[in-house]
Amino acid sequence: MVASEPYEECCHVKHKSRPMDKLKLNTYFHSLFPISEEIVEQITEPFCNFTLKKNTTLLNKNEISTKTYFLEKGYVRSYLLNEDNEEITTNIYAAPCFVNDFLSFFNKQPTKEIYQTVTDCDFWETNLENVQKNFHNIPKFREFSRLLFVINYAKLNDRVIEMASKKAETRYINLLKQQPQIFQNVPLKMIASYLGITDSSLSRIRKETSKV
């Protein structure tokens, strides 16, 4: 099991940011659909930035998520422990993207997974009150949120279908094509778990495909 330091809000320094500091965060909103700079700045105004070291627990199992996080730089994984106390990686997040247990965040229910930094990471965070305020006051934010949920659902659905219908070698090749940088930043043990295979199987597949 990977040793992980807990994320404690009091332990990280939040910085009062100039608008230019939020370039990657604001660009992410623009990348999904047409929206004016003025509205984006209104949405992201309450976000605070912070950093976490590698192997820090951002959100622990059975916690209720009170913040939503935008990953500006780095890699995060979500994982759980099976009945044999083995770590099973359920998702790997690569910046830029939002990272959270949204059911916990919106429904105020305990999380079922652990969210942990894989590398040193830069984040932006905001709370539910700010999100709800944007829902009620900014129509474009409601559009963005709906689109984000659709994108996340599509990714989850594609993964479920791939895990059920594709061979391990195909899953590996697809991940390598779609996100090659993961293999330079995430330990192979976590990648193997994410692909639903053992470390030795991943090593064998990597050797076999490298010969093709």
Tags for this model:
five-stranded mixed β-sheet, 212 residues, 45% helix, globular, four-stranded antiparallel β-sheet, 9 strands, Jelly Rolls, 9 helices, 2 domains
Question: What is the approximate shape?
Answer: globular
**N- to C-terminal separation?**
34 Å
Identify the CATH class of the largest domain.
Mainly Beta
Low-pLDDT windows of residues: 10-19
Question: Assembly type of the shown chains?
Answer: single chain
Q: Which homologous superfamily in CATH is the superfamily of the largest domain?
A: Jelly Rolls
Radius of gyration: 18 Å
Structural class: alpha+beta
Question: Could you give a short description of this structure?
Answer:
The protein has 212 residues and is of the alpha+beta class.
Structural notes for this entry:
The structure is a single chain. The chain has nine helices and nine strands. Residues 10-19 have low confidence and may be disordered. The protein is globular and about 55 Å long. It has a five-stranded mixed beta sheet with strand order 1-3-8-5-6. Strands 2-9-4-7 form a four-stranded antiparallel beta sheet. β5 (75-81) and β6 (87-94) form a beta hairpin. It has two domains: 5-164, Jelly Rolls; 166-212. α1 (23-32) crosses α2 (37-44) and α4 crosses α5 (139-165). The two termini are 34 Å apart. The chain is of the alpha+beta class.
